[in-house]
Amino acid sequence: MSTNSTDPLIGRLIDGRYQVRSRIARGGMATVYLATDLRLERRVAIKVMHGHLADDSQYKARFIQEARSAARLAHPNVVNVYDQGQDGDTAYLVMEYLPGITLRDLLQEHKVLTTVQAMDIMEAILSGLAAAHKNGIVHRDLKPENVLLADDGRIKIGDFGLARAASANTATGNALLGTIAYLSPELVTRGVADTRSDIYAVGIMLYEMLAGEQPFKGEQAFQIAHQHANDTVPMPSTKNPRVPAELDELVLWATARDPDQRPRDAKTMLDQLHETEAALRHEDTSTAATAVQRTVVMPSAVASASSTAETQIFAAKARHRTGPILTESAATLSNKAERRRSKGFWLFGLVILLAALAGGTGWYFGSGPGARIGIPDLAGQSPTDATAALVKLGLTVDPTVVPTDSPTVPKDAVVNTDPPAGSLIVRDTVVKLLVSTGPKLLDLPDLRGLPEQQAIDRIKTLDFSYDGTKSTQQFDGKAPLGTVIAALGADGTDLSTVKQYGQQQKISLVISAGPLPAVAGLSFDEASKLLQASGLTATKGVDAFSADVPKDAVIGIETPKDKPIRPNDTVRLTMSRGPEQVAVPDVVGAPWSEASKTLTNAGFTIKFKNDGVSQNISGLPGARVRATNPPAATIVDKGSTVTVTLGIN
């Protein structure tokens, strides 16, 4: 538990009932405090929405939704919500206080959990989630941060801020508000969520507990989202060989890309988890002689028309290793022995003859002239080292190498041999070295302006390799949203003007995030909200004079000269100081030819007095300034109009 003595809420009495004691945690939407309910004399956790979000109807609705969703649930594996209200500008939610840690804290400390630990935590999560699904609630933001592990052993699901009715499965604008690492493919691609979307998140958490890491990684959120939408979650046993096959199958079932192939709700998956636990206990207690090999068949998430049970059960078929036991009488065994003895004498002679032949043959093909030598795999070695290795084996190397293009072997290194690696040849056979000239150069079209997926398909079709881990987004006012701004090689080289590129070499893309939001003329708070919706954080930059933008409004975004602006960046806003104030120059008595230059250079607009004389004599050599309006030394906005009266000296 962390505290902050400078937090203005600590020590405050909220709604005349809840005495705030200390701060527990802070999130993107709210801060959670430890408080005392003075009316019931018990400790509670009070969740207070951040002040800058209090006026946002969308966030407020989410806050109220959390209270309503949790209030509909009464389950030992769901955090209880006691109260919800508003005290002045403070919107709050009162929940039961659970001293302990989150599942995220546990994973950061231990990384990989045992099979038993993972199944125990899964049982609690699925039990609470089953209660939510039964009440028609989809959580939509399941992740280790929202699973609480109390000091007394209780495990509970919290944070129903994104929950929706299971029948209202269109997520609209909030589709990606959940944590990207746990979003189901349908949420990423279509913004649609139902109970099976929660199951996908549970499957990702089970993978993380067993494998020690998340299945998909990337530098940018959209890269991870792309993998969720297009790639299959691997089995956790590929990272942790101790994971049993039954849990591998459970992870693959829960994380199927097609929602119809997943458990239809948490109750279905919970029932299977219980069967898996029973099967693993049975295997642990079985002896090697009676052990059964189980083939687990995943059911479809959609029950058949004739199904009457709520759960769907894994089909398991056992393959018993049995063999016929042959029994023979003593007489039969005796007769067989006699026959073997009668044949023994002539077989002995035959064995002696064969041994002699084998010895001679073995010498001839082993160390004699007919000896066969296996050519080793020399790929990646220099021609000098490869030649030395072959000569040492008793082979002859052709000094003339064979140039060979290769997408994987560096230039001037050995790709293969002729005869190829693994071949058995006799001594003194001449071997040729196939040396890499680098990847074969293929025509590369200009990918700029193409939609992202079309460019990716083009890269793969042309036999190049797409590197999604290095692809990035950046804001661009000229390139439409989602189109390619540039294609980059493996070393970061801009390939936009390159005509040819190496076969199977990596290409990453720079994708347009669209134009920067128009913030000129807005207040800083208005501009910040608009930029935040585009994934940017705003901070105040320099102040500048502006005749067009009101004082304290935003003039524009400071664009770095050597670095593009990308999603998740922090941008600096130039703020207006209003028009620049200057003094009217003293030009009275000066010749008009000099006075006009002085006024113009100072940024003023000149106007002649409407007396029918001043403008007419302005071109005469003796014209001088008699007066100005405003008078000299008057402080006015730069660029203001000065009216001059001329006369002849």
Describe this entry's structure for a reader:
Residues about 165-180 and about 285-340 have low confidence and may be disordered. Helices cover about 30% and strands about 25% of the residues. It folds into 6 domains: about 15-95, 2-Layer Sandwich (Phosphorylase Kinase, domain 1), CATH 3.30.200; about 100-285, Transferase(Phosphotransferase) domain 1 (Transferase(Phosphotransferase), domain 1); about 370-435, Trypsin Inhibitor V, Chain A, CATH 3.30.10.20; about 440-510, 2-Layer Sandwich (Trypsin Inhibitor V, Chain A), CATH 3.30.10.20; about 525-575, Trypsin Inhibitor V, Chain A, CATH 3.30.10; about 580-649, 2-Layer Sandwich (Trypsin Inhibitor V, Chain A), CATH 3.30.10. A hairpin with a 3-residue loop joins strand 1 and strand 2 (about 20-25). The protein is an alpha+beta fold. The strands form 11 sheets. Strands 1-2-3-4-6-5 form a 6-stranded antiparallel β-sheet, covered by helices on one side. InterPro entries: Kinase-like_dom_sf, PASTA_dom, Prot_kinase_dom, Ser/Thr_kinase_AS.
